[in-house]
Structure formats: C-alpha cells, structure tokens
Amino acid sequence: MDIEQNLALFEDLLCCGSNIYLWCYDNEGNLIHSNCPEEGLFHSAFSFLGCRERALQLGQSGAQPQAVGTSLGLIWGIDFIFQKGKLQKMYVMGPVFSHNVSLQDIENGFRHYADEKISLAWKRRLLNAYEGIPVVQNILFTRYLLMLHYCLTGEKLNASDTTIQQSFSDAAPSDAKRDRHRVWMSERALLDMVRTGDLGYKTVLSDSLLISNGVPVHGNDPLRQAKTSVIVFTSIVCRAAIEGGLSPEEAYSLGDAYIQSAENAHTYDEIRAVPTLMYDDFIRRVHKTKKNPKLSAPIAQCRDYIELHLEEKIRAKDLAAFVGYTEYYLTHKFKEETGYSLNDYVKHAKIQRAKILLRGSSISVQELSERLCFSSRNYFSRVFSELVGCTPIEFREQR
C-alpha cells in the first residue's frame, strides 16, 4: 500500500471538516514534517506539556494507536510505525479540544506545570491561539484515529483497541436527546457483559464507544469532569458485578481502589487508562466466580475459548488442537463434565450473547446472525426459538 498517498488523502479529508493537523516524528521524537501553519507553537506545546515524551514511551512499548492529553484539555492522537518490532516513526494528529474550554480553564491547567519550563510569553501565544483549536468529540476523534491507523498499516481496528475513549469527559453531543434510547440500550449491554462475566466484551465495548463517550457531566474544571465521570462509571459497573455474583466486599473494595486512582490523577494521561482497566478487571472477577470448580483445566480452557470466540466459527477439531486432545476424546470429555455436547454448548453461548445484543443494541437480526457465524438468518432464528421460546424479534419487542 502507498502510505504517502493514503496520508495525503487523509490530510485533505481532515481539513475538510476542521483544522486538524498531521505531524510526523522519528523514533527519537524529532519533528520530520507537518502541515500545520503554527508548527513552532504546537510542536513546542506537544513537547513542553509532556506529550512527546509520553508518546515515545508508548511507541517504545509497542502500543496500539491512542491519545495523550493534558490538564489544559488539549488532546493529540498518536499512531506508530514499527519495523522489526522497533519504533520507526510516530504520526501525530491534533491538537484538538475534546470539549469546550474557556481561557480560565487553560489558565487553571497551567498550574500543573512547572513555571521554569514554560515562559509567560509562550503561555500568551498559546492563549491567543486557543480559539483556532477545533473541538472534536471523542467519538469522532476515535474514528479519525482508526482511519489514520488504516492508512498507515491497512489494519482495521475496533474503537476498544484504542484508548482515546477513556477520558469519559465529553459534553453530550448536540443530538444526544435523539439518541438517549440507543445510549440506554448500549449501557444495558455493557452492564450485562459484567453480570455474565463475558470475556468477549470487546466488540460490545467498541460498539458502545461509537454511540456514547460515557457519562456526560459539565463543569468549569475539565479534569474534575473526567474524574466525576469515571467515578460514576465505576459505581454502576461495581453494582452490576455484585448482581453477577461478585461478593459486595470484594466489589466495593475494588471499586474504591479504582475511584481513588481516578482521584489521584493529575492529568488526562493518568486518568485515561482507569475505566477500561476497571471494566476488564470486574468482568474477569465475575467470570472467575462463575467457573465450575469440577471442570478439569482443559475443559475450562475450552469454555473460555468459546466465550472469547463467539463471533467466529468454533469447530471441535480446533478446540481439540487447542488443549492437546483428540477430537473424539474432547467431545466425550466435554459432555461428561458439562452435561452438554460441544455443539450444544456453543449454541447456548452464542444465543446468550445474542440476547445481550438484542437487549442492548439496535443491530438487525440478519447482522446478528452473521456476526455470530450462523449459516443463515433462518437457522439462527430457529436455534434462538428452540432455546429461548420466542423469535429474536419477539424477544426484542418484549423488552
């Protein structure tokens, strides 16, 4: 693929919507080129505010595309080019604000930086330029970052593969009222994944992130907004985990620890990782409580494999190879320990996922049958009716 041609087209597309600039850095953080007319100012902002150093750390650790932010509310999206496992280049998109900020917000944000690093003259230059910095909702910026990654690598990622969405601090989009029902359905799906301890939550999380950024809160302090939203999200996930079987003692202790982590954060970069780590931690703990202690390790591994690959074709021979059994021995051993044939267990697991998606998204029955790898919509509907007692459409309408 022609990376330079792709990037040129991507730059043109970005400029059609707003002034979002693209930067290229080498593996030591030296600027190679950009299309920003205020190159000196924003390059120094990227450096002075600690984002370039953080980006290099992420690149050297082999990170996926993600965003780094500052206490001023500025956000940069970053993707990496690797060669033989080593960082070669960094592509940076931005800066943008993820929400409306005032001059006072920016002044307050400067308190987190040492005065000796940033001169008063430079602060004034940035304050004078702030009105020209676009405000881009995290949902849209996530899409831009995924597009950038595709232009660079040809790889298609989900929203949950990036960490830009983790600030949970955006104001509600202008058409939020119109989508309240979709947001509510999405929240139900997220919490159902916690209640069931479903390890294959990433697709649902990705779908949710492209509908809503999280809990919308408003205030004069952007960092405080992010903390408040993380606290709310942690609280509802904590309660869903208790409903899923996690003990209140463990759930509340875990929730308190993540809330304290959010409170201790001094920058967006510090708080950004908390929600996804917390969500994954609660799901894995609920999953652990639901494990059958009577299952042998290979059969338990098969069960986990099935849950993680519900959106793929799951074949007995693949599972047998996964645990080192013959296909004949695995099918008999699985039925002996679980009470289900392997095929029936896969069907039950897929239909359980289908129920969550029917309750928590507007996905069509046709798309759902394809996502869960049923041979046809009719076959999916027949299996669903046999196990649930009604058709997928009837199930959705009842709820």
Structural write-up:
- This protein has 19 helices and five strands.
- Helices cover 57% and strands 9% of the residues.
- A hairpin with a 4-residue loop joins strand 3 and strand 4 (74-83).
- Strands 2-1-5-4-3 form a five-stranded antiparallel β-sheet, sandwiched between helices.
- Residues 164-178 have low confidence and may be disordered.
- The chain is of the alpha+beta class and 399 residues long.
- Helix 1 runs antiparallel to helix 6 (138-153), helix 9 (222-243) packs parallel to helix 12 (274-289) and helix 14 packs across helix 15 (327-338).
First-to-last CA distance: 47 Å
Task: Work out the number of β strands.
Answer: 5
Q: How can the largest sheet be summarized?
A: 5 strands, antiparallel
Helical coverage, percent range = 55-70%
Strand content: 5-15%
Which runs of at least 5 residues are low in confidence (pLDDT < 50)?
Answer: 164-178
Given helix and strand content, the structural type is alpha+beta
Shape: elongated
Q: Average pLDDT value?
A: 82
Task: Briefly characterize the structure.
This protein is of the alpha+beta class and 399 residues long. It has 19 helices and five strands.
